[in-house]
Write a structure and sequence with these properties.
This protein is of the alpha/beta class. The protein has 23 helices and 23 strands. The strands form four sheets. The protein has a seven-stranded parallel beta sheet with strand order 13-14-12-15-16-11-17, sandwiched between helices. Strands 18-23-22-19-21-20 form a six-stranded parallel beta sheet, with helices on both faces. It has a five-stranded mixed beta barrel with strand order 3-5-6-8-7. The chain binds adenosine-5'-diphosphate (ADP) and magnesium ion (MG). GO terms for molecular function: 3'-5' DNA helicase activity; ATP binding; DNA binding; hydrolase activity.
Length: about 700
């Protein structure tokens, strides 16, 4: 069989219809797919040890002879055990195989095998549980570094490795798509070498070279693709120019002076909107840095220019809060601010729809309801999304289409995010967006003191709640669940003390047993929008003293008089999420506190919580979070609308990311259209990469 990258796997020996289907589930349809199906790990089986020489506690190869017939016993229903001693000149190793009854016959007494597993010692007795093995005279994987692939039922690692090996010859025929000049400048291995060594590395050095080359390649094509998208936007599409008015004029409407960082960001946005091309800007600022004001300025500019603006928020509570803030700020300047949420009555919605279509609302704030069918604008020129990581790329473009339907050019887009990520990473992750960073908090914020505590301090904590309320302040208590669910014991949970705190029952108990004299209210996502609104309003008006809530209050809610944030089962939340929650306090002039309650014994969880207690720097926290969880989970899989990275870990490969980005910029400055012969394959690869993401590059 001559293998080309397009050879279907059904032509491989041993791959019938059933297997082909299973392989297809792994995204494997052709020989070429196999080449880039990278191992998720490796097993080092180069060194083969004698029994007594084998290091303990790590997986190693041990060569030994089967000393007697293996013994199969049934321990209980559904649990078989095969036991057999194996020997060499120096010692005996006792093997145990659970639920692999075939081993009873597979291991022949008197034969030599190489066993790969972990040697354990109890006194003088050496044992190994569930090793894999092969006959010593028919070694296939022993002596090598063996790839470990992500698998699915019915497809073994052995089978996959065999298929990859058969597919490898087609790597030889592959033209290297990375231009020679770039390979040389960045000391990158050739494609064929890299593709071979990533699967079957002869040694560690070869593996490093292969990884580096392939990870660089991924990042490089991504960077080139994004640069293309951005250029297309900045050179090809036309936006509606909105005249920039001085920040000073707007600042006169504010009860405070904008920080330098806010001012800079406002000016950047104004410049974008004035230049005749559509703005596409991400405003990044830690919680409390004052992003809303920037949005207000941009909206104000649009309205002064004779256009409409829309701002989309991820929750009703947040949309309503923005509506109140923007109305208070902009109504005096003659801006007609409107609100559209799913919670409104049909009649109310109809009225807003009509006003939007007629141009009688200038600046509308809303939830996803803004995307619904009945919504049409008269002259929408600016779209703002708050807390962007909650919205997919598609939703932003759905709103943009509403503006196109009105015969308008591409609208300006302003995206606001409180997820602080390193600037360069933002450039990559948010693709073709320009980035402004508000790296400064408004003055006179008192820092938030954060404490990690255990159950034994609960009573003292309640006293502290009482003291805060006594001073006129308000308190949030966040729980991980809405209702108590006796079935919902978490894996590894035994003690009832570890059960999740649930909003409803906990709030009842607090009111009854702990704070009978205080006003305790609840807020969670399962409440009717109107109830939520009422609860939030009562809290922001100071009528509620203790608000027991789920993470619905995570984003954006602004009640400066709230000074204490208590988070129950804090180990259940991600670091960035905890940071967001904590950001709900420390918004006024009073000293603020965050208390993280936990029952965890897990040292990693404790370390995470301590990180939070030790810093309020959102960038540092997100770096930790990124390290712990990886970018996929961090941003919500598939949400960022970017191609899936296979090999590169954006957090770990930072230096390589910079290098790839620099290389992409350099290449595009030399050959902006990628029209030179050497660079044409790059263009083809980039096109293919972005095909699946809906970001067509044509
Ligand atoms: P976020 O960036 O988290 O969305 P907000 O826009 O909600 O932050 O602002 C947080 C609080 O800080 C609000 O009460 C807002 O009025 C206030 N604020 C914003 N900018 C300033 C400023 N320059 N000086 C004083 N207070 C400010
Ligand atoms: Mg906000």
């Amino acid at each position: 069989m001559t293998v080309t990258p397009d050879t279907p796997l059904t032509q491989f020996p041993g791959v019938g219809e059933v297997r082909a289907k299973k392989l297809s589930h792994l995204g494997l349809n052709t020989a070429g797919d196999l080449l880039t199906y990278y191992p998720r790990d490796y097993e080092d089986r180069r060194q083969v040890y004698a029994i007594r020489q084998a290091p303990e506690g790590v997986r190693v190869c041990v060569r030994a002879m089967v000393a007697q017939r293996p013994r199969l016993s049934r321990i209980r229903k559904g649990l078989d055990l095969v036991q057999v001693p194996v020997v060499d000149q120096g010692g005996t190793l006792h093997l145990a195989f659970f639920n692999q009854s075939y081993v009873e016959r597979a291991l022949l007494p008197g034969e030599d095998y190489v066993f790969y597993g972990q040697v354990e010692r109890q006194g003088n007795r050496l044992s190994m549980t569930n090793p894999v093995f092969e006959r010593a005279d028919r070694q296939d994987v022993t002596g090598r570094i063996v790839p470990v692939y992500p698998l699915t039922a019915g497809i073994s690692g052995h089978l996959l490795a065999g298929l990859v090996r058969q597919a490898l010859p087609c790597a030889r025929g592959l033209a290297d798509t990375l231009p020679q000049s770039i390979r040389q400048a960045h000391h990158l291995a050739a494609a064929e070498f890299a593709l071979t060594a990533i699967h079957f590395p002869p040694d560690d050095r070869a593996l490093d070279l292969a990884r580096r080359r392939l990870a660089f390649e991924e990042l490089f094509y991504l960077a080139v693709g994004l640069a293309f998208l951005k250029r297309r936007r900045t050179t090809l599409s036309t936006g509606c120019p909105i005249p920039a008015l001085p920040v000073e004029q707007f600042a006169a409407l504010l009860p405070f002076t904008p920080t330098d960082a806010q001012r800079r960001t406002m000016e950047e946005a104004a410049r974008d909107m004035a230049c005749g091309r559509p703005m596409n800007r991400l405003v990044q600022g830690d919680v409390g840095s004052g992003k809303t004001v920037v949005a207000a300025y941009a909206g104000w500019l649009a309205v002064q220019g004779g256009f409409q603006a829309a701002m989309m928020a991820p929750t009703e509570v947040l949309a309503e809060q923005h509506f109140r803030t923007l109305s208070a700020l902009l109504s005096p300047a003659g801006v007609r601010v409107g609100l559209l949420t799913g919670a409104m009555t049909a009649a109310q919605k109809r009225k807003v729809h009509a006003d939007l279509a007629a141009g009688d609302i200038d600046f509308v704030v809303g939830t996803h309801a803004l995307l619904s069918q009945g919504v049409a604008f008269r002259r929408l020129a600016l779209i703002i999304t708050d807390e962007q990581h909650r919205f997919g790329v598609e939703q932003r473009s759905a709103l943009a289409e509403k503006s196109a339907a009105g015969g308008m050019p591409s609208p300006h887009v302003l995206v606001m995010s409180a997820t602080p990520i390193p600037r360069t990473l933002a450039l990559i992750l948010y693709g073709d967006l320009d980035v402004s960073v508000i790296d400064q908090l408004p003055p006179r914020r008192t820092p938030i003191s954060t404490y990690v505590i255990r159950e034994d301090k609960r009573q003292r904590m309640y006293q502290f709640v009482r003291r805060q309320v006594g001073e006129g302040r308000q308190v949030y208590i966040v729980c991980p669940a809405v209702e108590e669910d006796p079935e919902a014991a978490l894996p590894g949970e035994e003690s009832p003390a570890l059960t999740l705190k649930a909003v409803k029952s906990y709030a009842q108990r607090l009111q009854r047993e702990v704070f009978p004299d205080l006003t305790v209210d609840i807020l969670h996502g399962k409440m009717r929008p109107r109830e939520k609104d009422a609860a939030m309003r009562a809290f922001s008006q100071g009528k509620t003293q203790v608000l027991v809530a789920t993470t619905v209050i995570e984003v954006g809610v602004d009640v400066p008089n709230a000074t204490l944030m208590i988070i129950e089962n804090a180990d259940r939340f991600g670091l960035s999420q905890l940071h967001q929650l904590r950001g709900r306090v420390g918004r006024g002039e009073h000293p603020s506190f965050c208390v993280l309650l936990t029952a965890t014994r897990n040292p990693d969880s404790m370390a995470r919580l301590r990180t939070l207690a030790s810093t309020t720097d959102g960038f540092q926290i997100s770096r930790e979070d990124l390290k712990l969880r990886g970018p996929g989970d961090f941003f919500g899989r598939r949400q960022h609308g970017l191609p899936q990275m296979k090999l590169s870990d954006l957090a770990a490969d930072m230096p390589l990311l910079y290098e790839a980005q620099a290389a992409a910029e350099e290449l595009l400055s030399r050959d902006p259209e990628l029209s030179e012969t050497e660079n044409r394959p790059v263009l083809a690869r980039v096109r293919r990469l972005f095909e699946d993401t809906g970001n067509s590059l044509n």
